[in-house]
Amino acid sequence: MAKKISGPSYGLLEPGDLSVTSRRRFLQGGGAGLLMGFVWLRNGKAWAAGEEPSLKVIGGGDNNGGNTFQGFQPGGFIRIAGDGKITFIIPNTEMGQGIYTGESMLIAEELEVGLDQITVIPAPPNEQLYQQPILKSQATGGSTSIRGAWIPLRQAGAAARTMLVAAAAARWGVPAGECTAERAVVKHGPTGRTLGYGELVDDASKQTVPADIVLKDPKDFKLVGKPAKRIDTPSKVNGSALYGIDVRLPGMKIAAVEVCPVVDGKLKDVDTRPARAVPGVVDVVKLDNAVAVIGDHFWAARQGLAALDINWDNGSKENVSTQRIVEDLKTASEVGKPVMGRTVGDVAAGFRNAAKTVEAVYQLPFLAHATMEPINTTVHVRPDACEIWVGTQAPTAVQKAAADLTGLPVEKVIVNNYMIGGGFGRRLIADSIVQAVNIAKQVSYPVKVIWTREQDIKHDLFRPAYYDHIKAGLGADGMPTVFTDRVTGGSVLGSYLPKGLPEGVLDTDAIEGAAETPYDFPATQVDWVRKDPPIKVNWWRGVGPTHNVFVVESFIDEMAQAAGKDPVEYRRALLGKNPRALAVLNLAAEKAGWGEKLPDRTGRGISLHDSFGSYLAVVLETSVSPAGEVKLRRITAAVDCGININPNSVKAQVEGGFVFGLSAALYNGITLANGQVEQNNFNDYRQIRINEIPPFEVHIVASGENPGGLGESGTVSAAPSLGNAIFAATGVRLRTLPFDREELRQKGSDGSVLSMVAPVGLAVAGLASSDGAKTSSDPARPDLSLSSEMV
Amino acid sequence: MISLKINGQSHDVDVPGDMPLLWVLRDVVGLTGTKFGCGIAQCGACTVHIDGKPVRSCVMNVSAVGDRPITTVEAVGETPAGKKVQEAWLDLEVVQCGYCQSGQVMSATALLTRNPRPSDADIDAAMAGNICRCGTYPRIRAAIKKAAEV
Amino acid sequence: MKRWGLALLAVIVILIVAVGAFLFIPHRLEEVSAPQGMPTGQALVQRGEYLARAADCVACHTAPGGKQYAGGLPFKLPVGTIYAPNITPDKRSGIGDWSDAEFVRAMHHGVGKNGEDLYPAFPYASYALMTTEDALAVKAYLFTLAPVQADTPANTLKFPFDQRRLMRFWKLLFLPGHRFQPDNGKSPDVNRGAYLVEALAHCGECHTPRNFMYGLDNAHKFAGAVTEGWKAYNITSSKTAGLGDWSDQQVADYLSTGHADKRGSAAGNMGEAVSLSLRHLTPDDIRSMVAYLRTIPSQGTATTESAVDLDPPALKASTPYSPTPDELQDASLGLQIFQSACASCHAWNGEGLQSPHAALIGSQTANDPEGTNLIQVILRGAKLETNQGTIAMPAFGKAYSDAEIAAVSNYVIAHFGNKKPAITPEDVAKARAF
Ligand code: FES
Ligand code: FES
């Protein structure tokens, strides 16, 4: 049974607030039901500003879209040419999450075409057409893409199909009801006549846009919910995929930059002659805070830069250090004025009635994004226009930044958006575009600015450091009577909003994942002390939940420990009102063999959260060698993300997100000394590698709920499940990230312990041979394996 | 002028001898499938084959290549192992952002060329030098095993 | 009795006066004049530049990230820190108003412009052997540098080490009172090499062990020593510990490129010496240095006997891309780290992949069971400037734990050196402290 759906739509919403509550409200309440993309037809615009040249460039100048496009163009997402070629214009940026495929599936499902029949191109900057309904700006982030696209993209496909079918029916003079569409062909059932979509483009263009769009019943889905091959994969295994860094243009030169190593420092002066003497160097360009050397190739540019002896004006932040920042966070947490986040029930009574209180301080570091593709931007500033080639999560922000810098009207700024070699939030910010435009303004040719990995890490905008004081009262039964969390850290939203976030106003991101947990606490209070660090901060994969869920989920284990209960059992008891969370918890625990015995110094850790509209439970099993080395043995995840569009991508996102989070949990933290970032490259900003990753299972819970976001959920789960597993294995509770493995070393262990580590690849085989070893060797701790046998 | 044999074609390039092969490939020859990730041989994104053997082109002076043939990701599919690897990568949907995958494919192909039936430990030894920030490791392992079966 | 007492008093007074005189009589400033036939003008400056490189002045007189020759490099000693001074010709903060005589006195006698005694971190015990002509050439070169205004930080030595005059006792014991004396019984090549090795390159300052007074223990000349956590290896003719088994070509390559086939690569201070100094020397001078080194009698090493294994079994059983099957099966922590962060350059069979400098076969560092330099190079990385470009190894100290670095060090020494090391995390922690 088909039913009419109205829901959130793209376009025409008030830009501005990115708050979580408004996101939630929006999702729950639904939008006005405007059909995005059809705005354009109704307005009668020929094409959107800036769209034509972008599409032309990206589509290689063929008949894909833009103002030269001839054919059926029902809105911003779909182009069908007379030769039958179908092009989807995908509103979100592909940065690995599979969104080109996921969003194409939504359109294709209703348009009745196969994924093999389409090509995709990225949307040009155009807030009117491509504004993301949850973020309320044309951006990709916060695991919002599928949630925002779920209804509008299907509506776009359905409307276009309706018009094509109506055109065919009119041509044949038959009722549209007798016609069906499949694989880009309309068929008249009774006579068996067929017309391809390409043959119908002119007639379809004359059809009126249907007022009510009827969407398929999910049980009739042909594509959605079935594993689909990603459409970008073939180009990514044969080297033909083009990322921003791969742009090559006639006359293009390549720049290397050196930015003042001290935060907010400036360029004092530099003798540019040594660089100019390097063969292949074309120009040396000075910026306010940097020097760029431009060469025929990146090597010449880098060599030129290395030849320079640059004098910096270090400015006022020469003494910035993480040590000081952390001390300031602690002080702010203790004496600062909090902004209330969420309060429920009688907190004071909760503590009065508690038989026991548990409290702890958790600390999290600054984090770099370290996307695999280092930052790069290509810009050509001409007298009449500015053209940019870049992979960005926020194309309109790029366009606006360049317009401001060049004084050109926005429609004269052409943004060619590319696939990104990893976004993770880094490419929401236009800082590198600003820099590249400032360089390009000083030369006549197109210039590609590439940051070395060292620059990419040192001059990233980091995930803030946090200092969180968390506390709970437990009743005589060990169950919570009250739960409070004081989060202290900088405001990402404040750093992102053009005018900042006023003091005293809540940044909901700071408490997301703590204010609302899956659990049912009689009383809760979560507040936030704002303490902005002296460096810029930014969104980082998993945003608020990555930070808060680590604290909350670690602490839930501490509460269970204080109550003498098994961590899974304890959580179950708190999930009475949350069946979806309970279901993933149970599934993960069951599939992971929760409660089964493990060898000495080996343990399982669980984490559970609902973030971005999805529910995820992960059980991580790890052993800790006497030398303190953490060896992951097995990862078992259970996810409920509502209706899942492409199970392949769902699993990939859980796996990849979790692995990404593991690098942070084990190894990553940005530190500053003397106003300079101390990390450089993958040698000291270490990444987890294939030989550390154990078998990984992802189980999907079937669900008919609206799709949730999933790009970040796995990342959120990593640190808490690992911290809990380490505790189960060793009895040591690590509350500071990244986990300090030195604290896990059994003291007095000599060099010989260093070879006692179980091989990772054989971890599962190793499980079988563990005979009767107890989970815990520490008599002071309750034997978790016993209580969990009741499971 | 340095003469290079790349993917079966010869290229004369006018570059300094200490220029890393990576930048010669990307910026001079125009083969951008080989990626820049770290420049210090820590990530493997720049892996190419010289004489069929994997090398990190970001730290390989172009003058050290000599007349040995270079294969990049653009042409590795023409080798039997490369073809199998690419097919397995597609079958198991290994790729996410894809930026590391040129290097992963090159390292995996080299592994299968010298060892058609790699164990988990062999995979670790051959692939641990390739970083994937998107975390595609479980699938890389599975895809190598799959490629080894066919 | 009384007379005896007076006599004793007299002796004491005389001693005090003598010591006082020794400590307090100002240093003489000998006139110097340019010897006959000394080049002038640009030729002098060029010669001075070559000699300044051979003497590696820039290594100590440049702070990390600072301007060349502008000083500021700290020498952290147990008793405090000494800073190398600015030797650019800046009149106030550098040596711009030093006379020739003052400069030569500093080089030969370790005395500063104002007559103060200099600390022997400045290797004047070696430079004392330098000819006056060469010292003047070095000065001529230094005076062509752009003056840099950079005040040298004040030393922070504890009492009594802050008393510069005490260095006079040290000099009495350890400062040669003469310039280099050629040995007429040796070839001109060997003599030239001796002058380069002893006077200019001051090799002994690192390679000769020191006695308890920080003086060079020349009874064990070139037998190897540890300075600031790095081992300067035995460079005597010892076949097990020194260069006895090296070919002339290997020694020459090592000096001029920082690497010799099957002998590993230079890192730490030696890497710096190659980068800044030795690679700029003429092939003739390098050959002379080799010739002189060949004349150094064999000495057992003062540190560890750790004969280099040139053919370790594990290398034979490995390929460039995989270790031995046993090691693979074992999958030790050390192996796991090596395969993650090291193998891409070093290769398991010891041959080195992208650059021969990464070859570990025959490397003394990989053969030293104490792992002194190995730990340091892993912690701090290495950077070598060669005439064919920069060769670098990143520093892993910040991201890897003591246990991990101990494990990978043990693995490397067992695999590439065929030794049984027992490096502990505590050893790594100690090495970090430098
Ligand atoms: S770019 Fe060469 S290994 Fe990372
Ligand atoms: S797929 Fe993105 S880095 Fe590997």
Automatic annotation (TrEMBL), chain A:
GO terms for molecular function: oxidoreductase activity. Residues 238-316 form the Aldehyde oxidase/xanthine dehydrogenase a/b hammerhead domain. It comes from the Bacteria. InterPro entries: Ald_Oxase/Xan_DH_a/b, AldOxase/xan_DH_MoCoBD1, AldOxase/xan_DH_MoCoBD2, AldOxase/xan_DH_Mopterin-bd_sf, N-heterocyclic_Hydroxylase, OxRdtase_Mopterin-bd_su_IorB, TAT_signal. It holds the Pfam family MoCoBD_1. SMART domains: Ald_Xan_dh_C (SM01008). Residues 768-791 are annotated as: Disordered. This is Isoquinoline 1-oxidoreductase, beta subunit.
TrEMBL record, chain B:
Pfam families: Fer2 (PF00111), Fer2_2 (PF01799). PROSITE patterns: 2FE2S_FER_1, 2FE2S_FER_2. The keyword Oxidoreductase applies. It comes from Faunimonas pinastri. Residues 1-76 form the 2Fe-2S ferredoxin-type domain. Keywords: 2Fe-2S, Iron, Iron-sulfur, Metal-binding, Oxidoreductase. This is Isoquinoline 1-oxidoreductase, alpha subunit. Gene3D superfamilies: 3.10.20.30, [2Fe-2S]-binding domain. It comes from the Bacteria. One of its GO terms (molecular function) is metal ion binding. The lineage of its organism: Bacteria, Pseudomonadati, Pseudomonadota, Alphaproteobacteria, Hyphomicrobiales. InterPro entries: 2Fe-2S-bd, 2Fe-2S-bd_dom_sf, 2Fe-2S_ferredoxin-like_sf, 2Fe-2S_ferredoxin-type, 2Fe2S_fd_BS, Beta-grasp_dom_sf, Diverse_Oxidoreductases.
TrEMBL record, chain C:
Heme c 2 binds at C203, C206, H207. GO terms for molecular function: electron transfer activity; heme binding; iron ion binding; oxidoreductase activity, acting on CH-OH group of donors. Keywords: Cell membrane, Electron transport, Heme, Iron, Membrane, Metal-binding, Repeat, Respiratory chain, Signal, Transport. Its main location: membrane. It comes from Faunimonas pinastri. It is found in: Cell membrane. It comes from the Bacteria. Binds 3 heme c groups covalently per subunit. Heme c 3 binds at C342, C345, H346. This is Cytochrome c, mono-and diheme variants. One of its GO terms (cellular component) is plasma membrane.
